[in-house]
Amino acid sequence: MFGKGRHRGLAETIGVALISRYNTPPMDERDFFDENESLKPANLSCLFCHQSETYEIRWLVRTKKKALRGQTDERDRARFAKARSYMLRRDDFVQCKNPRCRKRFEISGVQSVVFL
Ligand SMILES: [Zn+2]
Q1: How many CB atoms lie within 10 A of CB 27?
Q2: Dihedral pair phi/psi, residue 14, rounded to 5°
Q3: Which among 81, 90, 95, 114 has the fewest CB atoms less than 10 Å away?
Q4: How many of the other CB atoms lie within 10 Å of CB of 3?
């Protein structure tokens, strides 16, 4: 039986072999997407005073490009074909809007990664 560590070692060896087979380094995932910051409203209730309010939460939106540019190889194209647009939540905390509370509370009940 292979241990977990051994498996990883094997995968790395294969990875190195694949990279050296191609002349270009693998494309960064960032090359697949256009990035934009976006604000989206979410209804949250404060953990301290339990008041529900709408808060604007910051997201990083990664929209898949229509086509890959620059030097690509079959590996990049296969990864690009599988890539999907998604959003990453940037804010972990919001400040309560209740003037008598104003505490910072952690955002819960909102996913941190959303596929589009
Ligand atoms: Zn509050």
Answers
A1: 19
A2: -65, -40
A3: 81
A4: 8
Q: Which residues make up the environment of ion ligand 1, defined by Cβ < 5 Å?
A: 46, 48-49, 96, 98, 101
11, 18 Cβ separation under 8 angstroms: no
Q: Write down how long the chain is.
A: 116
How many CB atoms neighbour CB 30 within 10 A? 9
pLDDT digit string (tens) for 29-69?
Answer: 788 999 999 999 999 999 999 999 999 999 999 999 999 88
Per the CB < 8 A criterion, the answer to whether 96 and 105 are in contact is: yes
Q: Are strands 52-64 and 86-89 parallel, antiparallel or unpaired?
A: antiparallel
* Residue 68 backbone phi and psi in degrees, to 5: -80, 140
